[in-house]
Amino acid sequence: MADIRSLQDAVADLVHDGDTLAMEGFTHLIPYAAAHEVIRQGITDLTLVRMTPDVIYDQLIGAGLVRKLVFSWGGNPGVGSLHRFRDAVENGWPRPLELDEHSHAGMANRYVAGASKLPFAVLRGYRGSDIPTRTDTVSTVVCPFTGEELAAVAALNPDVTVIHAQQADRAGNVQLWGLTGVQKEAALAADRVLVTVEEIVEELTPRPGGIVLPTWVIDAVSVVPGGAHPSYAAGYSTRDNAFYQAWDPIARDREAFTQWIDENVRTTEGALTR
Amino acid sequence: MNATPAGTTGFTSDELMEVNAARALADATTCFVGIGLPSTAANLARATVNPGLVLIYESGTIGSKPTRLPLSIGDGELADTADAVISVPEVFNYWLQGGRIDVGFLGAAQVDRYANINTTIVDRGPGKPEGRLPGAGGAPEIASNCGKVLMVLRHSTRNFVKRLDFVTTLGHGSGPGDRKKLGMPGAGPVAVITDLGVLRPDPATAELVLTELHPGVTVEQVRAATGWELTVADTVGTTEPPTPDELAALRALKAAGKPAAAGESGAAGKSGAARKPGAAGEPAAAGKPGKETR
Q1: Across the interface, which of B139, B279, B291 has its CB nearest the CB of A246?
Q2: Domain coordinates of chain B in residue numbers?
Q3: A3-102+157-264 under CATH 1.10.10.10, yes or no
Q4: Region A178-198: what's the mean pLDDT?
Q5: What is the DSSP code string of chain B?
Q6: pTM of the predicted structure, to 2 decimals
Q7: Which of A212, A224, B223, B244 is 20 to 30 A distant from B271 in Cα terms?
Q8: Tens digits of residue pLDDT in B74-110
């Protein structure tokens, strides 16, 4: 059953040094406030998992907390490169970053296998691509019925998955809607699940296409209005495109980045997030 | 370098590229759309040559009908105007791998003579670290599973290279038959539309050849912007310049995106001043497709 608790306590309890941590959200509902709490608490040596490690992971990587990244597309959507990600890969700053790299179809299926508690998933993928030369989590398997050779991708089972959603009820049942990406699979694949929500309501009203995660698959719910900013929560906020654009010059420069993180994350004591 | 001044011809070389890319979708039913130039082309096609075109984005939207150009793959506008919003595993497994999408429309960082794509790493020479690009995203399986693939990118020797440093996404491999050998269901790239002209694979060799030039562009210009010895078709056609209606539709789509982007920045204030980036409000790359690879 999910406990409804402060973000600070939930992160301290559920996320540990050395964990494999997935913070999902496909452009929409990205759990930025939770990532900032990870940075404030200095939880380190993380293996981060995410299909699209955009600005949220640029911040964690630049803060020096990340040992390895499992991903399929790393960029600042609609703007360009992720400069902290590139600096870590190309120059090892602030520390070297190990990569496990996939395609989107492969990552999505790795989560599906993880949620299904299967060791791997199959897909018609990676054909003719050099990607399998750079990862040991893609292989091939022969279909026992047709003899067709298919790609096999290893299941992803994060220690912790963190997602952001619109609403929870007082029992800790959660509902999210709009673009729901791969969040359901990422949550069900994980050992521990933290959900930050825009608000607590008395009763969840079913929404078209909405996904309900029952309280018994979640460990903690934290109320963090605006916790997806600069991403957005449909029905509550819109994407702050100006932030993504303004991030580019900040992230290009190591000092500007460090100063930004110090001023806007490390020294804020979580005041903005509770 | 990407635009001739509008004053001389009435349109830019980017607009020529975008209009021609949209026209390439005239007969398509469904299109899996990459963000950036492909998204511009697909939305312009809906506004001009193909109003019924079904746009599918990898964020899980089917039948998006945005009235402005989306600024990212997960722009709320794509979900708000869609016929259906589905999960990411579903869009890749049931719809793309299920063979239900006609055309994949991709951009690229590097392309070679067989329309293979690199969006992963670039070799910067001895003693220098490999340059890091965003990675594969949805492209490998889009190129494999869609009925056919269209590509759009600006033409330069940086993009049109003799040898790829990494094959992220297979086009035609090293010649005819490679796709079939790999069991790829789709026909692969059928046209690469650039700001200089159009290249198409030769049916006999699968190598990209120059088949059309945009008005005012010479074969020599295209050769100079291509990193391999470009083969030119026996008869090179000239594309039609944009019609006034096409230009008006394209400019309206782009203009619609600008005030919307500015308006959305209001969300920053709501979330607290301390989370604003230092240089908030800078127009930056709003209307300018940058390194669009997804």
Answers
A1: B279
A2: 7-261
A3: no
A4: 98
A5: -----HHHHSS-HHHHHHHHHHHTTTT-SEEEE-TTHHHHHHHHHHHTT-TTPEEEETTTEES---SS--SSTT-HHHHHT-SEE--HHHIIIIIITTT--SEEEE--SEE-TT--EE-SEE---TTSPPEE----TTHHHHHHHSSEEEEE----TTTB-SS-SS-SB-SSTTSTTHHHHTT--S--EEEEE-SSEEEEE-TTT--EEEEEE-TT--HHHHHHT-SS--EEEEEEEEPPPPPHHHHHHHHHHHHHHHHHHHHHTTHHHHT-GGGS-TTTT--TTTTS--S---
A6: 0.92
A7: A212
A8: 888 899 999 999 999 999 999 999 999 999 999 999 9
How far does B114 lie from chain A, in Å, by closest CA? 13
A42-57 pLDDT, tens digit each = 999 999 999 999 999 9
Task: Tell me what ipTM this predicted complex has.
Answer: 0.95
Q: Do A103 and B137 touch (CB under 8 A)?
A: yes
Q: First and final CA of chain A: distance in angstroms?
A: 21
Please indicate if any CB of chain B lies within 8 Å of the CB of A104: yes
Q: How far is A182 from chain B, CA to nearest CA, in Å?
A: 6
Confidence of residue A173 (pLDDT cuts 50, 70, 90): very high
Residue of B nearest to A228 (CA): B271
Which residues belong to CATH 3.40.1080.10 in chain A?
Answer: 3-102+157-264
CATH number for B7-261 (one of 3.40.1080.10, 1.10.10.10, 2.40.40.20, 3.30.230.70): it is 3.40.1080.10
- In the stretch 108-167 of chain B, residues with CB closer than 8 A to chain A read 116, 120, 129-132, 134-141, 144-145, 166-167
Secondary structure class of A186 (helix, strand, coil): helix
